[in-house]
Design brief:
The complex is a heterodimer of chains A (603) and B (316).
Chain A lengths: L20 E10 L7 E8 L4 E6 L5 H8 L2 H4 L3 E9 L2 E2 L5 H4 L3 E4 L12 H11 L4 H14 L15 H13 L5 E5 L7 H18 L2 E5 L3 H4 L5 E6 L2 E6 L1 H4 L4 H6 L5 H8 L12 H8 L3 H16 L17 E10 L2 E11 L4 E5 L6 H7 L8 E6 L2 E2 L5 H4 L3 E4 L12 H6 L15 H7 L15 H13 L5 E5 L7 H18 L2 E5 L3 H7 L2 E6 L2 E7 H4 L3 H6 L6 H10 L10 H10 L4 E2 L2 E2 L1
Parallel strand pairs in A: 3-8, 3-9, 6-7, 7-8, 13-18, 13-19, 16-17, 17-18
Antiparallel strand pairs in A: 1-2, 1-4, 4-5, 9-10, 11-12, 11-14, 14-15, 19-20, 21-22
Helix pairs in contact in A: 4-5, 4-6, 5-6, 6-7, 11-24, 12-23, 13-24
Chain B lengths: L4 H26 L1 H4 L1 H4 L7 H4 L2 H17 L2 H18 L3 H25 L8 E4 L11 E3 H27 L2 H10 L4 H30 L15 H14 L1 H21 L18 H22 L8
Antiparallel strand pairs in B: 1-2
The chains are: A alpha/beta (603), B mainly alpha (316).
């Protein structure tokens, strides 16, 4: 094998060059598990191919990834049948360092897989272990950092990197082993949409330029589908669909059955027959090109004009949330960390019963701002108040009774031995509230924990544990519920279920809800009001339909507008007015203004 | 009045308990759990200290430790000053200086105070303050200047090693440590263990901080009483102790998950497959390095010679 000091890792001679990764009739059951996690899986990944592997949580995606990388059975024990091969050679019997030079794995949480202190040390770690000569190691490091766009940060300490930078460092470190195929387990879960596009662009380049096979395990199908060559859907440990993206969503039934996501553009094509004559589009750009000048665009324009006419005159109206005395308010608040302004002179108020989504790129100050509402952190300037009373920094115990904050890592909020103990936890340390949002029995019933009261919280699914943490917060009398990235890493079914749950909670309790989220398409689009933060300042504040009608302004602050909003503004520009944010609404608007059909084809 | 048993008892209790009560408060106020990260976090930079030969950096705290053991108290002061000098060269951030100062002065004060009470010179003993019988249950007859100086001396000896080790941790990438250990023919596992510890200690501290926040968000009262609310402190200590039990499960679950992933990553990156390791780094010995080696060697040899000649040697 020839080695190029500064060359890419995929230019190899020898028998493995251009090989295909194959799973052949692979079944696997974890040690002691009652059911198999994988059942008769057949899958191939060709050089230069990008495969999107998706499915509901627990369907076996991550297990398949471990099998493809040879970590099953060498490091994860259980009963394996069938075999995984690369260029005809079985991976099952190879030690991990051999398989990692054929198939590299990037795990979900970059924090747990970055071992070294600086970026270049991390990338060099693998080649150093292989005892390669220094010029070879240096060449690989240079190339990997270059291809992942991390060259400028090579001497940066890992702890100072953003989520996207850590993810790209993890990819670079895996690439340094010169794998022929990269398998990435939910690489986008902690990234904002712009960071996600950067990572996807890197992966596409690897596939195109270096002929690397890439397997992306991801729930965020809307974002990955345009970059994929094939889509694989798993359900119950089996591969139930394996097709090119355009054909993959031609039939919605398997997706519905598997509880997996369908891109909005595809759903729109199904709901508005004839809107996409050449078949469903996968990306917004493609959808805009396909429908520009068609009856569909004209129908959307007519619907937008109707909305503008029907819109009440808002001249002189107070912005949302300021009509009544605010429930929660930030007045000229600034917070500085290590000389950097995380929050910069923010004035914001949230009224009783509002649902506000706080959006912005990673590091825009969203979590810092909401943390202040419960006494986490101290503002360098300004005041935070709940019902007009100042929030005292550090008095989290006091303020948590009024402002319930559900952390992104809900697992970290569980401390009791049983579900019931968890619900009672808060009541053990403070006087029972006079008028709780939910009482104990009500919470058990409302959140579906009947019969599970004496089970350990750790016996629940991830979604169940999140529901439990939320229920435990509501068994009190909070006036505001703050949810920090509640839908991160959740599949489409769980996300829908969570949105339904949140809607039910609001209609049942009338609670004020603030969601901090990157989930622009799902969670933010459902909120009545959206506040965009950029570099610590409020950049936009208004109804979701208005904020998302400004994709350029959003992009400026690192936020990608929802696909449906981009479609409408892409087709209509400023005439789109207040955009529609659900597939159902867009489809209804288009169908309502559809011209009369001639011979079954719209005029 | 001041010589009455009551007054002497009150003064004695104050003298005995003021330091152990003060130190945790100072630590929480000025450092906190999050501040501990500053002690072990590598500060990327391109200073002459960063560029020194990693082998020299590994030897530096060892050599200074040897000096602190061998030399007398007077010479120890010079060694202590010598260990502080490189910090002036490095110019660390104000936050790091604050943490370092607390971590240096705290143990020094604790040593100074405890030895002052419990280290008794041979008779006749001259007490700075003699405790009355009402406090005899603590086992200390009083505070002696001899004990305090002895405490200061012992603290300074420890602090020389602590200060030099911290300086090296702050200015040396772990990869360089691993490289140096390999050149000293230490097993690669030693370097890896150090790497993992230094990389993940800040993560553990961050996670602990997060879980402590979560406990409070769930309604657990971790608010500290004011220093003068003496009656509230026992309850606060009880709550903190109970909290330590509460947070163990989420911390353990998280740590086990993370460790399993890290082990798989280390395997996948080929750790341990070869008896020797390559290195990205090329360390060419510079004139500064040579001077560093010469100075260290001269210091250690000088101390050994002095010790042999019973000049400036430590008295036991």
């Amino acid at each position: 094998m020839s080695r190029h000091a500064s060359g890419p890792p995929h230019q190899r001679d020898g028998e493995t060059a251009g090989g295909e990764l194959r799973a052949e009739d692979v079944s696997f059951a974890y040690l002691g598990a009652p059911r198999a996690a994988l059942r008769h899986v057949d899958l191939g990944v060709a050089p230069g191919e990008v495969v999107l592997l998706t499915g509901a949580s627990g369907c076996g995606k991550s297990t398949l990834a471990l099998a493809l990388c040879g970590l099953i059975p060498s490091r994860v024990h259980g009963e394996l049948r069938g075999r995984v091969t690369f260029a005809g050679e079985a991976l099952s019997g190879l030690p991990p360092h051999k398989t990692s030079q054929l198939v590299g794995m990037v795990f979900q949480n970059p924090n747990q897989q970055l071992i070294s202190q600086t970026v270049e040390s991390e990338v060099a770690f693998g080649p150093e272990n292989l005892a390669l000569p220094q010029p070879e190691i240096a060449g690989r490091v240079d190339w990997c950092l270059d291809v992942t766009g991390m060259g400028g940060l090579r001497r940066a300490a890992v702890v100072t990197l953003s989520g996207g930078q850590k993810q790209r460092t993890a990819i670079a470190a895996t690439l340094a082993m010169r794998p022929r195929v990269l398998v990435l387990d939910e690489p986008l879960s902690d990234l904002d949409p712009v960071g996600a596009q950067e990572v996807l662009g890197t992966l596409r380049r690897l596939a195109q330029d270096e002929r690397a096979g890439v397997v992306i395990i991801e729930h965020r199908v809307d974002e990955v589908a345009p970059w994929a060559d094939r889509v694989v859907l798993m359900d119950g440990g089996r591969v139930v669909l394996d097709q090119p993206p355009r054909a993959a969503w031609s039939d919605g039934a398997p997706w519905l059955a598997a509880g997996a996501g369908v891109p909005d553009m595809v759903r729109l094509a199904h709901d508005v027959p004839g809107a996409f004559p050449a078949g469903p589009a996968l990306s917004v750009d493609e959808a805009v090109e396909a429908t520009r000048g068609t009856w569909f665009a004209a129908a959307l324009a007519a619907a937008a004009a109707d909305r503008v006419r029907a819109r009440p005159d808002r001249t002189g109206a107070a912005p949302a949330g300021r009509l009544a005395p605010p429930l929660l308010s930030w007045e000229h608040v600034s917070v500085t960390f290590d000389g950097n302004r995380a929050v910069d002179d923010v004035t914001l108020s949230v009224g009783e019963g509002e649902w506000v989504a706080l959006i912005g790129a990673n590091g825009s100050g969203k979590s810092t701002l909401t943390g202040l509402a419960v006494g986490l952190g101290k503002p360098g300037a300004g005041t935070v108040a709940f019902r007009g009373r100042p929030v005292r920094p550090g008095r989290v115990f006091e303020h948590a009774a009024e402002v319930a904050l559900l952390l992104q890592a809900a697992d970290e909020m569980l401390f009791a031995e049983t579900v019931r103990g968890e619900l009672e936890f808060g009541l053990r340390f403070r006087a029972p509230p006079a008028s709780p949002v939910l009482d104990l029995a009500g919470a058990v019933e409302f959140f579906g924990f009947d019969g599970l009261e004496h089970h350990s919280p750790w016996e629940l699914s991830q979604g169940g544990r999140q529901r439990l943490a939320l229920a435990a917060l509501l068994v009190g009398a909070p006036g505001v519920l703050v949810l920090d990235e509640p839908t991160t890493g959740q599949d489409a079914d769980h996300m829908r279920a969570f949105l339904r749950l949140l809607t039910r909670i609001r209609s049942y309790t009338g609670l004020t809800v603030i969601t901090v989220t990157h989930d622009i398409r799902g969670l933010a689009s459902r909120a009545a009001r959206v506040v965009l933060l950029g570099e610590g300042r409020v950049r936009m504040d208004g109804p979701a339909s208005q904020v998302f009608a400004h994709p350029r302004e959003l992009a400026r602050w690192g936020v990608l507008a929802p696909p449906l909003a981009r479609l409408q503004t892409g087709l209509l520009g400023a005439a789109a007015g207040d955009v529609l944010l659900t597939v159902e609404d867009v489809a209804a608007a288009a169908l309502a203004h559809r011209p009369a059909a001639r011979n079954g084809v719209p005029a | 009045m001041m010589q009455s048993l009551l007054a002497r008892t009150v003064i004695s209790y104050l003298l005995v308990f003021v330091v152990p009560l003060l130190l945790p408060v100072v630590f929480i106020k000025l450092v906190g759990l999050g501040g501990l990260r500053e002690l072990v976090t590598y500060e990327a930079g391109d200073t002459p200290l960063h560029r020194l030969d990693p082998r020299l950096k590994v030897l530096y705290p060892v050599a200074m430790g040897v000096l602190s053991i061998l030399l007398s108290w007077t010479l120890m002061l010079a060694v202590f000053a010598l260990s502080i000098l490189p910090w002036l060269w490095l110019r660390p951030s104000r936050q790091r200086i604050r943490v370092l100062m607390v971590m240096v002065i705290g143990p020094a004060l604790a040593g100074f105070w405890s030895q002052g009470m419990y280290y008794l010179p041979p008779p006749p003993v001259h007490f700075l303050y003699q405790f009355p019988w009402t406090i005899s249950w603590l086992g200390s007859p009083g505070i002696t200047s001899y004990g305090m100086i002895f405490g200061l001396e012992q603290s300074a000896r420890v602090l020389v090693t602590v200060s030099t080790s911290m300086l090296i941790l702050v200015t040396t990438d772990v990869g360089d440590f691993t490289w140096a250990f390999e050149r000293f023919r230490a097993p690669p596992q030693v370097g890896f263990a150090l790497t993992a510890a230094l990389r993940f200690l800040p993560e553990v501290i961050s996670r602990t901080t997060l879980v402590l926040r979560a406990v409070e968000l769930r309604g657990y009262d971790l608010s500290r009483p004011r220093w003068f609310q003496a009656g509230a402190w026992p309850d606060y200590i009880r709550r903190v102790a109970h909290c330590a039990v509460l947070i163990t499960v989420p911390l353990l679950v998280g740590a086990l998950r993370g460790t399993a992933t890290m082990a798989m990553v280390a395997d996948a990156r080929g750790f341990g497959v070869s008896r020797t390791r390559g290195s990205l780094r090329v360390h060419k010995r510079t004139a500064t390095d040579v001077w560093g080696y010469v100075i260290l060697a001269a210091l250690v040899i000088g101390a050994l010679v002095l010790n042999h000649l019973h000049i400036g040697a430590r008295q036991y």
